[in-house]
Amino acid sequence: MSAPQQPHSPADVSTTADLVAALARGDGTVRVVCRDGSRFVPLAHQPRNDSDTEPWAELDGDTGVVVRRHASTDVIQIPVTDTTELVDDQRVDRSVLNRLRAAGIACTSVHDHGTYARTTFQDGGYVNWSGTTRHGIDVSNQHPIADHESLGCDYHTDNASAPAEDHPDAEFATGDYDTDSAALVAYLIALADRHGRTT
Q1: DSSP H/E element including 179
Q2: In this structure, what DSSP letter does residue 5 have?
Q3: Are strands 30-36 and 39-42 parallel, antiparallel or unpaired?
Q4: Neighbours of 66 (CB within 10 A)
Q5: What is the pLDDT of residue 182?
Q6: What region does 118 belong to: left with phi over 0, alpha with psi -120 to 50, or beta?
């Protein structure tokens, strides 16, 4: 495992401390955003080099392409409070959710202020999935890509007589977000093909 990326300014140090403190309190996580008029835009910590003056990236939600860069002084940390749904403009996950939706797979937010996403299948089984950062933060709908460590999912069913192979858990932990997110999407699509999609 590579060492955690070092913060690039006092504002980055504060942001990391806020994330760790929120986890310790059981608050889920803290969303890192900038203000755009009356709305908040999510940011990912993606420095281009060790002396990058704009290490915070605003991403296109469909493609993951950086559309704007921000200095550390531009960022705001706000608590994650949405516990009912995964909101499109509150994520920087390089469209994992859009890829699942394109395959007809719906996700909802569960546990710890939306830390985990859940996909439910027609046969009553479901999968909870989340990502883990190098700082030990579990988060799915606001994944800080530059600090990505792994993605993982757990399958659950109420069918007590189901064989063990019907309870697959999986972790995708290459440390490369593009590789791990593609593997997670493929895995969930395969499970949906097997157990049936719900809308």
Answers
A1: helix 177-195
A2: P
A3: antiparallel
A4: 14
A5: 93
A6: beta
From CA 103, how far away is CA 87, in angstroms rounded? 18
- How far is the CA of 14 from the CAs of 11, 18, 31, 75, in angstroms? 5, 6, 13, 10
Q: For residues 170 and 151, what is the distance between their CA atoms, to the nearest angstrom?
A: 9
Return the closest-CA partner of residue 99 out of 191, 3, 189, 197: 189
User: Which residues of the chain fall below pLDDT 70?
Assistant: 1-30, 79-94, 110-115, 135-137, 140-146, 160-167, 199
pTM comes to 0.69
Residue type, 144: P
Q: What is the pLDDT of residue 185?
A: 93
At 117-155, the pLDDT tens digits run 888 888 888 888 888 877 666 776 666 666 788 999 988
For the beta sheet containing 30-36, the strands, ordered from the edge strand earlier in sequence to the opposite edge, are: 39-42, 30-36, 76-79
Q: Which of 198, 87, 196, 93 is nearest to 147 (CA)?
A: 93
Q: Which two tokens stand for residue 83?
A: 């516990």
CA distance 83 to 86: 8
